Amino acid sequence: MIPRLSFTIAVATLATMPLASIAQTIDTPGVTSPLTEAQIARAYPQDALAGAAVDGPVLLKSKGGMSLRVVKLAEGLSHPDGLVFLPDGQTMLITERPGRLRVVTDGILDPEPVHGLPPLNNVGLGGLHDIVLHPEFASNRVLYISYTKDREPQKGTTLAVLRARFEQGRLKDVEDILVADAWESPLGTYGGRMVFGPDGMLYISVGDRDGTTSSDQSSARPQAQNLDSHIGKILRVRDDGSVPPDNPFVKDPDAKDEIYSYGHRNVYGIAWHPKTGDMWASEFGPAGGDEINRVIPGHNYGWPLVSLGRHYSGSPVSDQPWHRDGMDDPLFFWNPPFNPENMFFYTGDKFPRLKGSLMIAGAGSKMVAQMVIRGDFIKQGDTMLNELGVRFRDIRQGPDGHIYVLTEGRLRGPKDTDGMLLRIEPPTPSSSPTDSAMTATHSLALPEAPGMELTMEACTRCHGIDLVVDQPRSPDEWLQVVSVMVGNGMALTDEDYTTIVRYLSDNLGMPMSGPH
């Protein structure tokens, strides 16, 4: 068991203040005092964004030269947050943060929202969050939705998870299976990402719930280190909301039984590695400090005692931003910020150069990133879709192997209708421009085979062929090597990418003879 720091420890400005003192002295909007007119106006902008950033199909190239075709499937959405594909392969369900559940069938958005949702609070970033299907949805029609739950005025809001049956276009037998002990300001963030793990358990992220992000002090922020609170945690429950007996803190009388890991800020992406079975999570930092973690049960991920970010006031979050004993350091962090949302491991066959990569949607960065993972080493590879100028809220792999994304134009605005559902697919041969072949002269004797000169040209642009082929690699490893080269700024067409990977895999899978 990793040692737990005393809860009276907090960021530098709160280091000597116990929790009780913090709760008594810090004004928490919507909890200790009503929301002001300015706070309400910020949460509910009077204007509304409309229109769509994408009209007809658009041909784009990633930063690394991969050809993409972007197809708009639905528009007129308001801050779409979560997406699932039904087993029929034709129907998708989408949550809209202001409080609607929408149906898209054969690429057509049903104008009528799904009925049966409970009352919710959609102030600021509140409302509907994620949606996930029960592993046996095809037979039981059960799904789960995370949403913002309200209670008496000035007593705050929290994250809840409902379970319901989706039948005849409406929700039935709706019940809460979890109401998080995370009652805080309605101006705070909620997390709410959900995913069923390989073990059949439901994993749920709960955000930092911080409604005073412009201040160095917060009643919610230190709770991420408190095991008697759900704030800043990843939770693990059965499909009915009950607690599995092997959760890491079930024997700790001072801890919430549902807690799987803690010390998180806002986990908006959770994905299971298809080969290792490890859980990976993306974490949204404050001003900076966005990170990726491999999540281990019972471990502490540091927030707010360890963070590379700054408060929105500009002051550092932590006086020890890199490391504290007993806390796990991130395996990757972004600088400048990326604002990571949901993510998944690509296992389809439509984009061979992305196979096995972790694909992450970026909100403030307005792009999608490919992350290449080798053990504990992570590197950002290719990036794409930045030309669209939209925030990406969710990203999923469809049953057809294409990539689907949900977009919004800005962070807040429940009247906005500029959100889109987009499908990312390879262009057809007739729509994809063919780049001229690259040739190069070289002095290193590589095996004569199709793709040799193209490989030489690509490798000698940067470190040189000798550093690339210094050891034998499997086909999967060669794919990762070329993806890292793309991440370093090398642009390749789809045809060139495939040719180089095939050449390396076919000809350099065994040690080369002679010096190299």
UniProtKB/TrEMBL annotation:
> What Pfam families does its record include?
GSDH
Every copy of the Glucose/Sorbosone dehydrogenase domain together lies at: 77-409
* Signal peptide location: 1-23
Which UniProt keywords are present, listed alphabetically?
Signal
According to the record, the residues making up region (Disordered) are 207-229
Q: What Gene3D superfamilies would the database entry show?
A: Cytochrome c-like domain (1.10.760.10), TolB, C-terminal domain (2.120.10.30)
Comp. bias (Polar residues): 212-228
Judging by the UniProt lineage, the source's domain of life is Bacteria
How is this protein named in the record? Answer: PQQ-dependent sugar dehydrogenase
Originating organism: Congregibacter variabilis
